[in-house]
Specification:
The structure holds two protein chains of two kinds.
Chain A: E1 2-12, H1 19-30, E2 42-50, H2 53-68, E3 74-82
Antiparallel strand pairs in A: 1-2, 1-3
Chain B: E1 2-7, H1 14-23, E2 27-32, E3 43-46, H2 66-76, E4 81-84, H3 86-94, E5 100-102, E6 110-118, E7 133-140, E8 144-146, H4 149-157, E9 161-166, E10 185-189, E11 195-198, H5 214-223
Parallel strand pairs in B: 1-2, 1-3, 3-4, 4-11
Antiparallel strand pairs in B: 5-8, 6-7, 6-9, 9-10, 10-11
Classes of the chains: A alpha+beta, B alpha/beta.
Chain lengths: ~80, ~240
């Protein structure tokens, strides 16, 4: 078993409104920055052990599917690296 | 009628629900989520609060607790299950109710009284109440119900919309919508009608002293059921 770090980025699906992003866009505009659109999300970093990179990637995807993202409103992307 | 009132770490409305249920002749028991064995109960309430601090998403961590499997089993067996506020969020996260509840469109936490139109009486909590305009309190920051168009069309066609935000006269206007929910939806049922979730708090309007008694009518509809655990009668 080796150590891996998975970075799981969760964001609202394109068709789901992101009021937090809209508020941030408004705030950036109030600072005089010309922004067209802002979307917010979250980044979850997980350290764990696995037998090789394929297994580590599969485990990270499972974390996203089963808990970290709600498929009704969110999508996620996974990046896995050996420690 | 024995009613299990679930408690997760961070639940805050279980004592209020137990009190309100006792007012309508039920025998409430507060049940710790990790020990949840819902066999032997006639109904289940998932109360409001901030289960697991609402970390990750409202209801997300509660939705993988041992209670979730029990709720799924009880729901499949037709047991009446009511989720209010955070309880509604938990039932959506478990997948017992369609759609999801996200941050209020205006980003504000709303603590207020709202009017609701009861849209369906084929649930154990609204039997005989269809068409009634009721007044209940809300207190939430993530009560904006969303779903894709297909899901919305399906819940409307199936009569799964149970509560809609309206004005005092029953009109579902944008002004009467406190959080931006699609189609002013405040509460929904599953297809069978035995699982109901709503953002408002019926337990907080069950006595005159609290400023209203409309919530008591929802709980009375439950305890008025002739058979414990009966699937509600479908009204044509």
């Amino acid at each position: 078993m080796s150590g891996y770090v998975a970075t799981i980025r969760v964001r609202p699906k394109a068709e789901v409104r992101d009021p937090q992003g809209e508020a941030v866009a408004g705030a950036l505009r109030s600072l005089g920055m010309d922004v067209a659109d802002v979307r917010t999300g979250k980044e979850i970093v997980v350290r764990f052990s696995a037998e090789g990179l394929p297994e580590a990637s599969a485990k990270a995807r499972q974390m996203g599917d089963e808990l970290l993202a709600n498929p009704v409103i969110e999508e996620f992307a996974v990046e896995v690296a050996a420690e | 009628m024995r009613v299990a009132v679930l408690r997760f770490p961070g639940t805050w409305s279980e004592n209020d629900f137990a009190h309100a249920l006792s007012l309508v002749g039920a025998e409430p028991e507060i049940v710790w989520h990790a020990d949840a064995d819902l066999r032997g109960y006639d109904a289940v309430v998932v109360p409001g609060g901030f289960a697991y601090g609402d970390y990750l998403r409202a209801g997300a961590i509660a939705a993988i607790s041992p209670a979730a499997a029990e709720l799924r089993r009880a729901a499949a067996e037709g047991l009446p299950i009511l989720g209010s506020c955070n309880g509604f969020q938990i039932l959506c996260e478990i997948g017992l109710l369609p759609g999801a509840l996200v941050r209020n469109r205006h980003l504000e936490f709303r603590c207020d009284w709202v009017h609701l139109r009861i849209e369906s009486d084929r649930t154990p909590f609204t039997a005989g109440l269809r068409g009634e305009i009721v007044r209940m309190p809300i207190a939430h920051g993530e009560g904006c119900w969303v779903a894709d168009e297909l899901t919305l069309a399906r819940v409307e066609a199936n009569g799964q919309v149970v509560f809609r935000y309206t004005d005092a006269r029953g009109a579902a206007t944008p002004e009467a919508n406190p959080n931006g929910s699609i189609a002013n939806i405040a509460g929904l049922a599953n297809e069978a009608g035995n699982v109901v979730g709503l953002m408002p708090h019926p337990e907080r309007c069950s006595e005159e002293l609290l400023g209203g008694t409309d919530g008591r009518r929802v709980l009375e509809a439950l305890t008025g059921l002739r058979h414990a655990g009966a699937v509600p009668v479908r009204v044509q």
